[in-house]
Each structure stands twice: as structure tokens, then as C-alpha cells.
Design brief:
Length: 249
């Protein structure tokens, strides 16, 4: 018998199999339209195929979400007993209805997300929220899961690099002084070169409140072609920590 056969993750997986949660609103719309309109057989068959495909894809994403949480639990290995205690203590602090809402929100996001790596990130956020020694902040968790569905692996690679070079500057404060952030910036793999991709990536990360652009030095020549620089924000560190696999930490 598997280590996780008797835990809530397995029971949730069994429950999801019985419930009609895999049906997408798009699928329902397609099926209803196909039933009412006098469509050619080839289109009706296409609609049937689409309905089945979308339902299957939603189920795959849902299972991947729960499997990620389950695997993280197992990978925790030697600290599994402590983890179980942490989860039990957490359950006392977080209302069941809050956890239910977070799980359903995670499931909806997973079902509507094409990229499997993003589904796994949602699962990691859910898992890391469960094992934290504090009650879950539902609004924060939902926001972090939303960001996880929007950013790519490449963009997260850039964000992690910024955490590596500026993260320590946030350990004892809630913001990084402009001069410190500006000085640390060139320690990233991008250096001080003007790279259009860097600006594009960090502009997107800024739109989610993970980083903020640093105003250029007052003595900077306005005609100079320079790379924009960015400072890490606490939300950026928090996001990276929530999508981190405990097996690799």
C-alpha cells in the first residue's frame, strides 16, 4: 500500500473521480450548441471529440495538481512525521471552508492552464501553504496561484536570479535601498549589457508586483543607451519560496 493511500490527498483524488468537476464551461457550451443546431455530422463529431478532449484535459490537469502535492509530501522523507504534525497544527488554525475554497480555486486554475509546469507550480504553492506554521492567507494564496498560471519558466528563471543577487538585502527590511539594488543588479547573469529580453521579462514581473524598476542615477546621461535595472520586492521572494520544491531545498 502506498504511503499516501490513507491521507486526504488520496481521498480527494477518489472524490474528484466521482464528482462532475472536469466539465469545462466551454465544453458545456459546445455540447449544448451542437445539440440544438442542425450541424453536419462531421461538425457534430468534431464537437463530441472536443467535449471529450477538454474533459480529459481538465481531469489530467486536476490529477497533476493533486499528484504534485502528494509527491511533495512523500519526498519530504525523513521529516514526514514533522510534516504531518505541521499539517495537523495548520488544520487547527485554518478553517476547513477556507482550505476547501483554496483547493477548488487551485483546481479551477489547474484545469484551465495549458502548461503542465504551471499546474505543478500551483500544486507547490498549495503544498507549501499547507505546511507553513501559520494560518493560510486565502487572498495571498489565490493571488500567488494566479501569478503561477501567468508567468513562464523563462520569466521565473530571471526572477530567481534576482532573488539570488538581491534576496539577502530583503532579509531584515521590507525594501531594498535604491543604491544597493542598483549596485547589485550587475551581478546577475545579464551584467550591465543592454539586453531587450531582460527589460521585457522584468516589465512583466513588475506588472505582478514581484519587482520594481529603479529610477536611473541623477547624473545619468539621458542620451546614454543603458539597461533598465530592477529591485526585488518582498512579494517576489515570497512567490519564489512558495513554488520551491522541498525535495530540492
Amino acid at each position: 500500500m502506498s504511503q499516501i493511500d490513507d491521507n486526504p490527498i488520496k481521498r480527494l483524488q477518489d472524490q474528484f473521480k466521482m464528482e462532475d468537476l472536469a466539465t469545462s464551461p466551454v465544453t458545456e457550451a459546445v455540447v449544448k450548441i451542437a445539440e440544438k443546431l442542425p450541424l453536419p455530422d462531421v461538425l457534430k463529431k468534431g464537437a463530441d471529440f472536443l467535449a471529450g478532449h477538454l474533459s480529459k484535459q481538465a481531469e489530467e490537469r486536476r490529477n497533476l495538481l493533486l499528484q504534485t502535492v502528494a509527491e511533495e509530501t512523500v519526498k519530504y522523507g525523513a521529516e514526514l512525521d514533522r510534516l504531518k504534525k505541521s499539517v495537523a497544527e495548520h488544520a487547527e488554525r485554518t478553517k476547513p471552508e477556507v482550505m476547501a475554497e483554496l483547493l477548488m480555486d487551485a483546481t479551477r486554475k489547474a484545469q484551465n492552464t495549458r502548461a503542465k509546469d504551471r499546474v505543478q507550480r500551483i500544486g507547490l504553492i498549495l503544498f507549501n501553504t499547507i505546511v507553513e506554521p501559520k494560518a493560510a492567507d486565502a487572498d495571498e494564496v489565490e493571488e500567488m496561484m494566479r501569478v503561477a498560471t501567468e508567468v513562464s519558466d523563462r520569466e521565473i528563471y530571471f526572477l530567481k536570479e534576482l532573488v539570488k543577487i538581491q534576496g539577502k538585502l530583503l532579509e531584515s527590511r521590507d525594501h531594498i535601498p535604491r543604491y544597493d539594488a542598483h549596485s547589485a543588479w550587475i551581478n546577475g547573469f545579464w551584467g550591465d549589457r543592454v539586453v531587450p529580453e531582460v527589460d521585457s521579462v522584468f516589465q512583466k514581473l513588475e506588472s505582478y508586483g514581484l519587482v520594481t524598476r529603479i529610477a536611473p542615477p541623477n547624473n545619468q546621461n539621458i542620451m546614454a543607451d543603458i539597461q533598465n535595472r530592477y529591485a526585488l520586492l518582498p512579494k517576489g521572494v515570497r512567490f519564489v519560496n512558495l513554488i520551491k520544491s522541498r525535495a530540492s531545498s
